[in-house]
Write a structure and sequence with these properties.
Helices cover 45% and strands 12% of the residues. The chain has 409 residues and is of the alpha/beta class. The chain contains 17 helices and nine strands. It folds into three domains: 64 residues, no CATH class; 65 residues, no CATH class; 239 residues, Nucleotidyltransferase, domain 5 (2-Layer Sandwich), CATH 3.30.420. The longest helix has 20 residues. A hairpin with a 2-residue loop joins strand 1 and strand 2. Helix 1 runs antiparallel to helix 2. The protein has a five-stranded mixed β-sheet with strand order 5-4-3-6-7, sandwiched between helices. It has a two-stranded antiparallel sheet with strand order 1-2. The termini are far apart.
């Protein structure tokens, strides 16, 4: 028959002081004897004898003594802290100025921009801080920026509906048919800036992304009428350094119409569409909607000509930063291991770097892209983007909640 609970408590009380004052080897022997006598699990027995976070009342005669025991703080183990507050603040400033990138994309960006960071008058950082930023790993960057990322909260609305009529004339292309396509195959989509109010006229953003290179261009639209969509496509094709040979939208009415079909036929551009309610068929541009539009301009409502002009200027400046400097990763393959799917990505590269490395791009285009990239400063572009974001926010329609009005802060 085992010990009673009363006997266990008495034995525990008797061993506490001896256990605390013993050496490591002696404590092990005491625990062995205590576990054998009481039947306790070793970890639980040790916690009882240490008396962590337990209030005990010892009664004697007509008086009672309350003893509060606390946990002993051990000396911190591991390496000392490497990155101080000054490094963390400099990292946060660079992160904000370069568009809130993840660690895997920001790390190579910082290493390529060490000289610009060192000479930037706004940052005013020492050579030691610059050196630490240049050697910081992606995991460390994400850890140091965790508190900053938690401040960003966003949500949105979809404008795509099921359309008919011209479906039979436009072929479907699914997500599995985009593997190993050449530069010039692009997906496109529109994003509404209604501030959460579906009534009235508001601005839209047209986003076009090249599947092979990740090159992304955006244009602000007065609305989704065909004239504005066609005008925006003309501007985008003029700015992209390589020709567009294939366009793939979703099933929105701004794309599935005779105007776009005539435009593509007249410019020798192949046109395809997604399956209804299958976003994966348009996945390359769908992921850019958040990364290059919502994160940039937020969820406020824009409807005035001044706001539209500022929106397009913001897209022009950020487009240079996005396409020439901001690195991205492409999924190479994925494998299933039991219940988990393991994904493998290539090294982070900017769309311009992918263009320069692609054999299908002519040398003339590559020389133009090299000259253009050399003339740009990523930190100056990041500062200009911040200025235009603040200017755009001031032009937003003040008809939403305070959260909607401050969405892009």
């Amino acid at each position: 028959m085992g010990m009673s609970m009363r006997s266990r408590k008495e034995l525990t009380k008797a061993l506490v002081q001896r256990y605390r004052s013993s050496t490591r080897g002696q404590k092990s022997k005491i625990l062995d004897e205590f576990c054998e006598a009481t039947g306790y699990v070793r970890s639980y027995a040790a916690s009882l004898l240490r008396g962590y976070t337990r209030n005990r009342i010892f009664a004697g005669g007509s008086s009672a003594v309350r003893v509060v025991t606390t946990k002993k703080h051990r000396r911190a183990n591991g390496r000392p802290r490497v990155y101080g507050q000054d490094v963390q603040q400099a990292l946060a400033q660079v992160w904000r100025r370069l568009g809130y990138l993840c660690g895997k994309r920001l790390a190579p960006m910082i290493r390529d921009s060490v000289e610009a960071i060192r000479t930037d008058p706004f940052l005013s950082v020492s050579d030691e801080v610059v050196g630490m930023l240049g050697h910081m790993s992606p995991a460390t960057i994400d850890r140091l920026l965790k508190s900053e990322r938690e401040k960003l909260v966003v949500r949105g609305r979809s404008y795509t509906g099921v359309r008919g009529g011209l479906w039979d004339l436009i072929p479907i292309r699914t997500f599995g048919e985009w593997k190993d396509v050449s530069p010039g195959h692009a997906q496109m989509d529109t994003v509404g800036h209604d501030g959460g109010f579906g009534t009235g006229d508001c601005a839209f953003s047209l986003c076009l992304t090249d599947i092979c290179l990740g090159w992304t261009e955006r244009r602000g639209l007065q609305n989704r009428a065909a004239r504005w969509v066609i005008a925006a496509l003309d501007e985008i094709r003029a700015d992209i350094p390589f020709p567009i040979i294939h366009m793939h939208p979703d099933n929105g009415s701004e794309f599935i119409n005779k105007n776009l079909m005539s435009y593509c036929n007249g410019n020798h551009i192949e046109l395809s569409r997604s399956r209804p309610e299958r976003k994966n068929d348009n996945c390359y541009v769908e992921q850019k909607n958040f990364d290059t539009i919502r994160k940039l301009v937020g969820y406020a409502r824009y409807s005035t000509p001044e706001a539209l002009e500022t929106l397009n200027e913001l897209y022009r400046v950020h487009g240079l930063l996005q396409n020439y400097f901001l690195p991205s990763q492409k999924l190479i393959r994925k494998t299933r291991e039991g219940s988990k799917v393991r994904k493998y990505y290539d090294s982070p590269q900017a769309p311009a770097d992918r263009l320069l490395a692609h054999p299908a791009i002519s040398e003339e285009i590559k020389q133009h892209v090299r000259a253009r990239k050399t003339s740009l400063n990523p930190l100056e572009l990041g500062d200009r983007v911040k200025q235009l974001q603040k200017q755009l926010l001031e032009l937003a329609d003040r008809i939403g909640s305070p959260v909607q009005q401050e969405a892009v802060r």
